[in-house]
Design a protein that fits this description.
about 90 residues, alpha+beta, 2 domains, two-stranded antiparallel ribbon, 4 strands, about 10% strand
Amino acid sequence: MKMSLIKTFIIAVVLSISISIAAYQQTQAQQQQVPDKDCAFNPNGLAKCKPDPTTGKCPSGFSANDKWNCFTKGPCPTGYAKLDNDESGKCFKK
């Protein structure tokens, strides 16, 4: 009987630790910043413009520049343009 209680206690502790680790990992993943529209203006200066640390790839709608940072695909917003021979992907004010 006493041994059974000890085993049950150990199983409960291990299960609790496993749940805590999973919750921590989920929180960390949610806090990880991902590229967004700001990366069109400062792809090399914002931490959130880094590619996915697991896959090394930029998300859909983004490309990697010469420094392997993510910038938005497609044209720049009105009043901005990409410069010829600039491989950063940055949008500059016209």
